Amino acid sequence: MQAAAMRAHRDTIFVEDAAVIHQEPYPGEQYILRLEAPLCAAHAQPGSFAHLQCETGLPMRRPLSIMRVDAEAGWVDFLYKAVGRGTRALATRTAGEIISSLGPIGMPFVPDRARPHTLLLGGGVGIPPMVFLADRLRQDKHWQPVVMMGSEVPFPFPAQPSRFILPGMPEAVIATMPLLENWGIPCRLASLQGYPGCHEGYITDLARHWLETLTPSLREEVSLFACGPHPMLAATARLAAEYDLPCQVSLEEYMACAVGGCAGCAVRINTADGPAMKRVCVDGPVFDARLVDWGS
Description:
22% helix, six-stranded antiparallel β-barrel, 296 residues, Rossmann fold, 8 helices, Elongation Factor Tu (Ef-tu), domain 3
């Protein structure tokens, strides 16, 4: 059954010559890239990523999480930080240029309808999948998402005060992402950099504040979703275990092929048959937080 599911998944990975629609720079060497990639846009799910060729002379592609899609218009948005040769080259690409795209790739987040209160935690370059998931959830009134984001570089958007009251938040913590505010989704921001309106600490601290306001019966309707650096995800997994909440995490690992051939992105997962090495690219990137070996 799992093998059949994987085969079906791989049939939805497409190679496209994607045209750059536009690219916007943000502080902290961050960029939002919009590509015309209709096949990727039509099949992407929250948690999916694409493997992009950054420049012609650089054979190794770079995996970037998908932040938003418009299947009808055929575009895909990526938020990334320029940190090495590949992403710095990608940051120079301009409207009209063609970028080879391989995607969408990866097993997505799967919300449980028995738990409509969804808490989404995104840290740094882990923000994009949470935006994508929030966008998808808001299309069905059954879901009641809450989003918390953390960053140690300036956020890639102009933060603004939120009009939504979020229980448990410290009084001064009012900053939110304008896009989520426009969507009607409560959101709060955290950082250790002293940004106005942000919590001075970690997003797991904010998550704990919010969870503590919920009654035991309401907590039974909560599930967690997270993407970000390894320490943040490990802390989120511990928080979920403390409150006995299901939690799905999107892992980030260095990748070469990104389609399961090289196994260079393998991580240790505790399966029903014992520990096993699973590939983040096609077995993930989304995993049950309870099954991840956080010590590896």
